[in-house]
Input
Amino acid sequence: MKKKGLFISFEGGEGAGKTTVIREAQEHLTSQGMLCVVTREPGGVDIAEEIRAVILDVNHTLMDERTEALLYAAARRQHLVEKVIPALSQGDIVICDRFIDSSLAYQGYARGLGIDNVLEINRFAISDCMPDLTIWLDIDPKVGLGRINHNNQREVNRLDMESIKFHDRVREGYRILHTKFPKRIHRIDAEQSPAKVAQDVKKVLEQWL
Output
């Protein structure tokens, strides 16, 4: 697929503050006259949102790890063909809250399925449509989960219920991916003040644009 636009994904553990940072990034780019499409994974379109509800349902604790990985890949495929690819094809900037790196960190590394195995599943789902730029909001899981516990407006999902050891492994998975894809993935310290995080993200965006 030939992309006219720019595909930016935001990654991070639970409570990293992606929603706030993405909103500020969108406002920054829009203020410069750029057309931005903001979306999320899993979800973004009706079919993918329904898959999201199945994956994150707190009652689905018996879900097999491979089932989980396949459901994420299926939602990703539908999201791509319905929303992401059309936007990129017309030259928009697509900002996505999570993409393939979440599957690699959560299912590939933290679940123990293997990063390469999960990458192969997702190669089938996405073909060659990888993000041009990925911003990883790195945060200590204890800090991130603490933020979630104090946020009464955020709905708790099945992944929030995992052990701290699981979330530590997710963070380690992101560290491995950062080393594996250093040109694409940029680390931001998400434990800084919100203003400093936003400033660091804007610097990365300006370097790319």
Notes: Residues 148 and 155 are 9 Å apart (CA to CA). The first strand starts at residue 6 and ends at 12. The radius of gyration is 16 Å. Strands lie at 6-12, 36-40, 93-97, 133-138, 185-189.
